[in-house]
Amino acid sequence: MTPVLLAQGLVVDFGAVRAVGGFDLSVGEAASVALVGRNGAGKSTTMRVLAGVLPPTAGTVQVAGRDAATDPSGVRAAVGYCPDVGGLIPRATPWEHLQLAARLRGMDGWQDRARDLLTAFDLESAADRVTAGFSHGMSRRLSVVLAAFHEPRLLLLDEPFDGVDPL
Fold this sequence. Notes:
The chain is α+β, with helices and mostly antiparallel strands. The protein is built from 5 helices and 6 strands. A 4-stranded antiparallel sheet has the order 2-1-3-4, with helices on one face. The chain starts with a strand and ends in a 10-residue tail after the last strand.
């Protein structure tokens, strides 16, 4: 069985600084994996490469059969990525975020899925409020909703529970 995610010998350098050195990972369908390590260990940098946002310096990354170095847009189409910080438009509502995501991804009939996710993440009452007034936890929950919205083959969540209540 071909893994959904395969990283071999992943290296990421920022000038003279090696952020990731020789990372290997294979993840199959329906698996859950956590990257655990100290601050500055390269976890977020690794996630950005796996999501097709940042190119690797060396090594290979394949997501759903797409190569991150040669087909980053194909990787981004297969991945739902929730970054550790940012990503929301302060003057937009959750509904507008979902509408924009649906347009960018060419999704038809997205409204029911959007409502279901907003309800599941307890954001339905805030669907028409701008995100600038959101608590940190509400912003994080919306970021997870946006990452999962298009039902990606691979869901990458960087610090998904930071600031989110236990429920």
